[in-house]
Amino acid sequence: MRNEQRAARNAFNEAAKPIRAERAATVQAAVDKAVAGAKASGKDPVVAGRVARRQAMEATKADFDAKMKPITETRREAMAAAKAKRDAAIAKR
Predict the structure, then answer these.
(1) Model pLDDT, residue 89
(2) pLDDT for 25-80, tens place per residue?
(3) Distance CA 27, CA 35 (A)
């Protein structure tokens, strides 16, 4: 059962890696733009970066969740199958 769970988690992490990287790149681009704008206008770049990060994370959440949903469901099903297999093995004892 542990090997099946590990395989499910590893498959999920490998599938999620490019999705997370895409979101991180989008957010970082927005932060960089906001920080540059703040420096140019004489505002605090740290605050501008923090605000921009939060806004970009909120703006990309729906798309990110939509892309993550199928792989999350696949992982959930694989974990449930492994649990069912374990429960069946315990019931045999």
Answers:
(1) 87
(2) 999 999 999 999 999 999 999 999 999 999 999 999 999 999 999 999 999 999 99
(3) 12
15 by Cβ neighbours in 10 Å (0-12 / 13-18 / 19+) ranks as middle
CA torsion angle 49 51 54 56 (round to 10): -70
User: Quick one: CA dihedral 57, 60, 66, 67, positive or negative?
Assistant: negative
Q: Are 49 and 27 in contact (CB under 8 A)?
A: no
Two tokens, residue 77: 């099903």
Q: What is the pTM of this model?
A: 0.83
From residue 18, how far is each of 15, 23, 44, 75, 89 by CA, in Å? Answer: 7, 9, 32, 16, 36
